Amino acid sequence: MKFAVIGGDMRIVRLAAMLESEGHEVRCFALDEAPADLIKSCSISACYCSQDADCVILPLPVLDMRGGLNTPLSAFRHDAEEILSCLPKNAIICGGMPGEKLAKLAKELGLDFVDYFTREELVALNALATAEGTISVLLENSPITIWDSRILIIGYGRIGKMLASRLRALGAHVAVSARKEGDKAYIRAANCEALDTRTLGAELRRFDTVINTVPFRVLGVEQLRLLKKDALCIDLASRPGGFDFEAAKRLDINTIWALGLPAETAPVTAGKIIKETVLNILREKRGEI
Questions:
Q1: How confident is the model at residue 289 (pLDDT cuts 50, 70, 90)?
Q2: Is this prediction's pTM over 0.85?
Q3: Do both 101 and 221 map to the same domain?
């Protein structure tokens, strides 16, 4: 098959290299600063790169913080809407978290666009990689062991579940906060302390580390004042994040916004997860599964 790989981080670089090693024809664009042993050459334009492609693979997320194409491994900025406008209509376009505006444009252009981050096989394994990456961040930035430390996880979604079980296995005293009574019951059933995210207060003083997984503000200045002075806060959520970062800075609280951890800590595994998801999408489109 012919693949066009446009933009992205080391996950996408590893994906492109894997596809090529499996015998697929791969063209790349906006990866001009990727390691030369993995990406041997880049096309001169997205239009040329995607010409005659069966599938175009875009980054995760498709857009960067400024609204352009997510291209941390390119020396140039690239307009996502311009690139989308030149993609072939007979190709399957796969990108992660494109955003409402770009998804609407893809539909208007008649593109067969699939958001691979909505796929359960990807988000489940991505959560696992994120949980392991979080443990790496914790080990690198905490002056104490995970064993016997008190850790609060905010949110009991996929990442919260995987993180709680792994931290407990390492000997941490784990509490998890949630909003739904059903989630709190599952938290207790997992032998963790259950708290209510909406009423976090004085109990925050007990924790050495607070890890947020929910994509909205949960700890403002008043809650942050209650933390230990040497507490470590790790935010895994996308914008706007769960902590008031300006307040945390004023209060001199060690706060880390750990976005895109799989790309940083396990790019080979993360690239393989995306690759296998894209191949599943293509097999489904062809009616093979």
A1: low
A2: yes
A3: no
